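Entry for the shared binder. Reason: the reviewer on the internal report wants the predicted structure included alongside the sequence.
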Amino acid sequence: MALNEFIGRSVQLKTERLADFGYFLTDGNEDVLLHKNDTDMHLEEGQEVEVFLYTDSKGRVAATTQIPEITTDSYGWAKVSDVKPGIGVFLNIGINKDMLLGEEDLPVHRSVWPIEGDMLYITLRVNKNNRIYVKLATDPIIEEISEKATRKDFNKNIHGYIYRTAKVGSWLYSAEGYKGFIHESQRKTEPRLGEKVEGRIIDIKEDGTINVSMSPRKHEALDQDSEVILSYLASRNGAMPYGDKSTPEDIMDRFQLSKASFKRALGRLMKDGKIYQEEGWTYIK
């Protein structure tokens, strides 16, 4: 087999000769450069060594003794190292050269592109020009590595990474290994591809997959809404022209809360003796 058929994989090669800038390795027919920046090993002529083959910035086959988990034959988690509008997203697979997930394989909307530090489950692919690229894991691949949730997991808090995103919802792989779905009604904003998110399990399907909500539980939401109101009151020296009679539009515009949520939070605060209302205004006690 030609060496370019091993791009994106590891292979055993023999050290053919030494150079000032590294080593030339051979399979008996072709040579490939192992640059000194790609190894911390000291090799002798004739010594065999396992290397990973990739293509450098000029499209040439190059070798490294850093053997990544992610190859053309295997999947793994990789961290986003850079984002280039018009090009795509670069990921660190554990070698000196970052790998490109092209713009054509990313979501249409830039708002849900991964950012630096996000994590993606990927493999590698090699195109007809021997260029190496990232390929995202599909649903069947995620299913292969997934664990089945059971009824005892209901209502548990979980976290995981988004591996697929769409207007109707987002798909995640959790730290427990569960494959989950977040319906658009169960999230305030659409998470990024590769973003780490937190939520709770609201349903377990027969196949062991889960439905997840990123919305807080009712008591948690009530606490958050109360804090929003108290913070706004504090910013206005303890008085605000909003109360039970305020319009839903005014409440949404000021607090990003529905009128029902606003009234529940006001009721809680009044019951706790923290606020009172007078002539359409609300005051801190």
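Summary line for the report: Residues 146-213 form a domain with the OB fold (Dihydrolipoamide Acetyltransferase, E2P) fold (CATH 2.40.50.140).
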